[in-house]
């Protein structure tokens, strides 16, 4: 999806998982359990499957990239056994405060996730904010060597799909410090959403909040 009319307007890219909802919901843990189970199902050693999957995450940005690249895992099978099996609707509730915050921001709004499109839509719908985003930049796991955060090409893809050419117009919120650092290098104004006890990454991180609802505290000029 593109929006040429908005190419000169400020735009806010929002990560979805563990950013628009609290990581305390445990969705990340459930996802990892399913990924490890899939690894065992395709023949990875049960004693080292967690290390193998975690190394793929570090090397490729997403575990699924390593599973596809080195083990021929089918993207549809991955989505079915991992993302598609998550009980999103029973874990994530509508968030009126999030909705109000998004409505009050004086920029365009765009979702930017490393998840697949179906998972992204399920989460946004469960939060009841799916109607507030112009579009979603997502990962198509069926594409060979698909781009994902924190690769620079992923940020360029998000800008291209959103129809924006000036990085100085881009704002970004994510729970992953590496993703934030990559966005800063791309020229985006970025906000890390994470508990203070979590690893915050390098000193280059511009803004830090513990929950997405606190966004107006660090970027007050963007809100009505």
If you had to describe this structure to a student in words, what would you say it looks like?
With 224 residues, the chain is α/β, with parallel strands linked by helices. The protein folds into two domains: 4-21 and 93-222, Rossmann fold (3-Layer(aba) Sandwich), CATH 3.40.50; 27-88, DNA polymerase, domain 1. The chain is 41% helix and 11% strand. It contains ten helices and six strands. The protein has a six-stranded parallel beta sheet. Helix 9 links the parallel strand 4 and strand 5 (189-193). It comes from Coemansia thaxteri. InterPro entries: HAD-like_sf, HAD-SF_hydro_IA, HAD_sf, Pyr-5-nucltdase, SSM1_domain.
CATH top level of the largest domain is: Alpha Beta
What is the count of DSSP helices, taking H or I runs of 4+ residues?
A: 10
The CATH topology of the largest domain is given as Rossmann fold
Q: Enumerate the spans where pLDDT stays under 50 for 5 or more consecutive residues.
A: none
Strand percent estimate: 5-15%
Radius of gyration: 17 Å
**Main beta sheet strand tally, sense and closure:** 6 strands, parallel
CATH architecture of the largest domain: 3-Layer(aba) Sandwich
Order of helices and strands: EHHHHHHEHEHEHEEH
Q: Structural class of the secondary structure composition?
A: alpha/beta
| Approximate shape | globular
Distance between the termini: 27 Å
What is the typical, i.e. mean, pLDDT?
Answer: 92
The protein's oligomeric status is: single chain
The CATH superfamily title of the largest domain:
HAD superfamily/HAD-like
The residue fraction in helices comes out at: 40-55%
Number of E-type strands: 6
């Amino acid at each position: 999806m593109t929006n040429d009319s908005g190419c000169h307007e400020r735009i806010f890219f929002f990560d979805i998982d563990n950013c628009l909802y609290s990581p305390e919901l445990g969705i990340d843990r459930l996802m990892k359990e399913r990924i490890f189970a899939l690894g065992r199902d395709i023949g990875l050693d049960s004693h080292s499957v967690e290390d193998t999957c975690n190394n793929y995450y570090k090397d490729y940005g997403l575990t699924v990239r390593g599973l596809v690249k080195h083990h021929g895992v089918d993207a549809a099978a991955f989505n079915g056994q991992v993302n598609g099996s998550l009980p999103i609707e029973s874990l994530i509730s509508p968030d009126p405060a999030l909705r109000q915050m998004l409505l009050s921001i004086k920029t365009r709004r765009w979702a930017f996730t490393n998840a697949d499109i179906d998972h992204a839509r399920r989460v946004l719908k469960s939060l009841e904010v799916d109607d507030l985003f112009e579009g979603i930049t997502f990962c198509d796991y069926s594409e060979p060597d698909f781009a994902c955060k924190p690769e620079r090409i992923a940020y360029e893809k998000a800008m291209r799909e959103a129809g924006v050419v000036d990085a100085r117009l881009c704002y970004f919120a994510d729970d992953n410090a590496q993703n934030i650092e990559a966005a800063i290098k791309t020229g985006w104004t970025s906000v890390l959403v994470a508990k203070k006890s979590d690893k915050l990454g390098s000193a280059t991180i511009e803004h830090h909040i513990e929950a997405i609802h606190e966004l107006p505290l660090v970027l007050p000029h963007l809100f009505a």
